[in-house]
Design a protein that fits this description.
Blueprint: H1 15-46, H2 51-59, E1 61-62, E2 71-72, H3 73-98, H4 105-132, H5 148-158, H6 164-188, H7 195-200, H8 202-213, H9 219-236, H10 241-250, H11 268-292, H12 299-308, H13 310-338, H14 348-357, H15 363-373, H16 378-404, H17 406-418, H18 420-426
Antiparallel strand pairs: 1-2
Transmembrane segments: 29-46, 66-88, 108-128, 140-158, 170-189, 195-212, 279-299, 311-335, 347-373, 385-404
Catalytic activity: Na(+)(in) + 2 H(+)(out) = Na(+)(out) + 2 H(+)(in)
Function: Na(+)/H(+) antiporter that extrudes sodium in exchange for external protons.
Length: 433
């Protein structure tokens, strides 16, 4: 009798899933480069002679006041543009848990556990630092998020030969991380709740769900319904980005039996994802970064104040230490109790490199900082600087680890290109093809 194959900790997914994730990674890598350019441009403007013009642009108010939508451009970026980002995140989450590899509990165990550890430990370290230094606890969720676009931009430079299994692990971890960020925003950062607008949002959301279940793609029908849903959720006091997630969850992943079933082709969720991911990664998130990341650096004195401030220090420690520690501990415990093996050719240092890279928290971290301390406040500016600092340190440390492992990744890439025989030679004949 053939021995039962043990669960692979970082094994490759199915072929269809691998191809789909590779396509997502290419788009997110480009988006990460645009995000980096936008963030640098914001910092340059905020610390240049044009800083007042930049501040005036961020605070410029547009929108109908009768509907309480006369918001600043910075607020439109965080509430409006990021709703597109979270709509795509909702599509991706539903796709992963309905038709992706996460529908298999055995495959889902490792990235889900890693994501949970990567949220809990940074939050605890933030609270520990602020309790010891008499800081403010309400920013505890700021260092818990991973920015997949920014992380992939780092990989494009330092980890070009990173095996597909590791890239898939990072993307899946970030997907689950997004889900927990959505729950945190909805539960912990809703300052006031108006029940009537929230209940009223169910009507356009329900009509939207019925139409997409019938595979209606007409933008002139769906876009107004989505806009009304967003406006009502915004009026309820729940952060408006949650509307994007709910709309994404409403879109079907698989074709119905009447439409030919799963064998007839991809569902509407995949169609919308292909259409809206470039808008999210290439337009919405970079614009949000440009309107949010511009903070005065303050020179050497600013760095000293940053390290002496409990909130800022808690964010940096959470991103640089908490994220990798939580992910590594959770992954090790999962491997211990499920008796999973790391895929041949890989090692725990590879998990560590990705865990450090997960400390690159940008988009959602900036958003949570704004929700915790108020957009445009002095504390918000300091938290943004802490997020930028922690993300930069995490990116540099991850780059060093990935570069040190580049030779091993090159061997694995050559083996994958050579086919099964090459893979067999890399692992010294220890694994059957």
């Amino acid at each position: 009798m053939a021995p039962t194959r043990r669960l692979s900790l970082l094994g490759p997914g199915s072929r269809a899933e691998t191809r789909r994730i590779a396509d997502i990674l290419r788009k997110e890598t480009i988006g990460g480069a645009l995000l980096l350019i936008a963030a640098v441009a914001a910092l340059v403007f905020a610390n240049s002679p044009w800083s007042e013009a930049y501040a005036g642009l961020r605070s410029a108010t547009v929108g109908p006041g009768a509907w309480h939508l006369d918001l600043s451009l910075a607020k439109w970026a965080s509430d409006g543009l990021l709703a597109i980002f979270f709509f795509v995140a909702g599509l991706e989450l539903k796709r992963e848990f309905v038709a992706g590899d996460l529908r298999d509990p055995r495959r889902a165990a490792v990235p889900v556990a890693a994501a949970v550890g990567g949220v809990i430990v940074p939050a605890l370290l933030y609270l520990l630092v602020n309790s010891l230094m008499n800081g403010e606890a309400r920013g505890w969720a700021t260092p818990t998020a991973t920015d997949i676009a920014f992380a992939l931009a780092v990989l494009a430079v330092a980890g070009r030969r990173l095996p597909a299994a590791l890239r898939t692990f990072l993307l899946t971890l970030a997907v689950v991380d997004d889900l927990m960020a959505i729950v945190i925003i909805a539960v912990f950062y809703t300052s006031h709740l108006s029940v009537l607008p929230l209940l009223a949002a169910l009507a356009p959301l329900g009509v939207f769900a019925v139409l997409v279940q019938r595979r209606v793609r007409s933008w002139w029908l769906l876009l107004p319904l989505a806009g009304v849903t967003w406006g009502l959720v915004h009026a309820s006091g729940v952060h408006a980005t949650v509307a994007g997630v709910l709309l994404g969850f409403a879109v079907p992943v698989l074709r119905s039996d009447k439409a030919g079933g799963p064998e007839a082709g991809p569902g509407l969720a995949e169609h919308f994802e292909h259409r809206f991911r470039p808008i999210s990664a290439g337009v919405a998130v970079p614009l949000f970064a440009f309107l949010s990341a511009g903070v005065p650096l303050g020179g050497l004195g600013g760095v000293t104040n940053l390290l002496g401030d409990p909130v800022s220090l808690g964010v940096i420690v959470g991103l640089v230490v908490g994220k990798p520690l939580g992910i590594m501990v959770a992954t090790w415990l999962t491997a211990r109790f499920t008796r999973a093996d790391i895929d041949e050719g890989l090692a725990w240092v590879d998990v560590g490199g990705l865990a450090i890279l997960s400390g690159v928290g940008f988009t959602v971290s900036l958003l949570i900082g704004e929700l915790a301390f108020g957009l445009g406040t002095a504390r918000d500016a300091q938290v943004k600087l802490a997020v930028l600092t922690g993300s930069l340190v995490a990116a540099l440390l991850a780059t060093v680890v990935l570069w040190l492992r580049d030779r091993a990744y090159r061997r694995l890439a050559d083996a994958e290109a050579a086919g099964p025989a090459g893979a067999e030679s890399v692992v010294g004949g220890r694994r059957g093809t």
